[in-house]
Amino acid sequence: MTPVLNRLAVATGRVVWFTGLSGAGKSTLAQALRDELAARGAAVELLDGDAVREHLSRGLGFTREDRDTNIRRIAFVAGLLARHGVTVLVSAISPYRETRREVLATLPNPSEVFVDAPLAVVAERDVKGLYRRALAGEIPHFTGISDPYEAPETPDLHLRTDQLSVEEGVRRLLVHLGYSA
Fold first, then answer.
1. Of 94, 111, 146, 180, which residue is the catalytic one?
2. pTM, entire model
């Protein structure tokens, strides 16, 4: 007869939370990091804020309450994956500092990465014209224009994407996460 195990080994992954304005480079960096980690054989998943909003949070608006609900949903899914050994990369504006603190405190091995670029740079990168429309008053509740973005006070990593290439950003992320660059 096989002895019964008193404990099951639990694989614990981590959550890397990319926060910053629209157009700062969160998704670009997260996708590049995902590709690099996958090439190294890591179990990795990307939860992109736009995709999650479309599939998991459809119907939510852009009020503070709706944004917080969206972030809490993303964190819930990220936590489930991380508890099963997955490195989860979350790319979401997540504009409110208090909500980020709240969800990061619930996640295994979290890292907060502030992906930062000046407003003029992110507006210039905006191929959809959202900043132009927000500045013209056509889009209410637009983060960084008519709604606040509260930058992290002490992020685990601060990446200025107006000063770094994607490759350099990924290198810094790998070092931060304990991988060789």
1. 94
2. 0.90
Active site residue 94: yes
- What is the token pair recorded at 179? 């991988």
pLDDT digits (tens, 9 = 90+) for 64-94: 898 999 999 999 999 999 999 999 999 999 9
| Termini Cα distance of the chain | 48
Nearest to 174 by CA among 161, 153, 159, 162: 159
Q: Which helix (H) or strand (E) holds 127?
A: none
Can you say whether the dihedral through the CA atoms of 112, 117, 119, 121 is positive or negative? negative
Segment holding 90, helix H or strand E? strand 87-91
Beta bridge partner(s), residue 90: 17, 47
- Residue type at 69? T
User: CA neighbours within 13 Å on the CB side: how many for 181?
Assistant: 10
